Amino acid sequence: MEHLWIYAAVFAAFVQSLRFMLQKQVKEAGLSTAAATFARFVYAAPVVGLGAFFYSSAQIGGVPALAPGYWGYVVVGGLSQILGTVAVVILFSHRNFAVGMTFKKTEVMLTVLSGYLILGDSVSVYGIAAIALGFCGVLALSGQAARFTWRDLISRASLIGLASGVIFSISGPAYRGASLAVMSDDPLIRASITLACATAFQTVVLLGWMLWREQDQLRAVFVRWRLTGMVAVASMLGSMGWFTAYTLQSAAYVNAVGQVELIFSMIISYFVFSERSTPREYAGIALICASVLALILFG
């Protein structure tokens, strides 16, 4: 159980890299940003809900009680995850797949602060040093020029990436707060109940938006059910991994280990999209991988 959160985070990172690949293909197939985001929730919601109910019933004979403040955490986490996902999907049109994922990873550094402000979670000195090493890797990936300039930080792509990092840094601690508010000692019950509630909330929010503004895109999500359904499966599996890890460990550590997603993203970027990274980008990714390893060993 001590290292379960690490396995859960690595699994979630792997599945998430597949999910973003599928979402990119969904967007390239003509679906809007909102539709590509909606696709990850709509099919998963009923499956996750039923799974959480039956697992909880089998383990403790019913659904556990929820502590005060639970739904506040779910709403904050759900909305921030929607907005963060939208920002990442928009980002795909500005940078290649692997580097787009790296811009999103600014959330790791920012989660140290948001986790402390929301839940009072703290990070050790060694953990902060490891996360700072990863931040150096993000800076190395922030520009297209041979040498880094401050102008790179204010490009549209960089600002969108940083915005997604800020937004996602809120969702992790919020979901951890929700999981801890489920009155059960079983981490899988806590994770599955919270995931079911969050997914249902996000489905309702996005459904309302699409009925209001993008009815044609709403139909397209179901017409292209084979592709959008795969997005939902990847999202469901990845989210279960994240929520389990958040239940067992602070969001800052979980997100830091989750940066191994970059390795998976590079592999996908190379073999699926035939995209190539520059030596500078490889150096930045190497720094981030070193950060993850240091965090596991010394954090």
TrEMBL record:
Lineage: superkingdom: Bacteria
Transmembrane segments annotated in the record for this chain: 6-22, 34-58, 70-91, 103-119, 125-141, 153-171, 191-212, 224-245, 251-273, 282-298
Keywords linked to the UniProt accession: Membrane, Transmembrane, Transmembrane helix
EamA domain segment(s): 4-142, 159-296
Pfam families the record matches: EamA
InterPro entries: EamA_dom, EmrE-like
Protein name, entry field: Uncharacterized membrane protein
Organism taxonomic ancestry: Bacteria, Pseudomonadati, Pseudomonadota, Alphaproteobacteria, Rhodobacterales
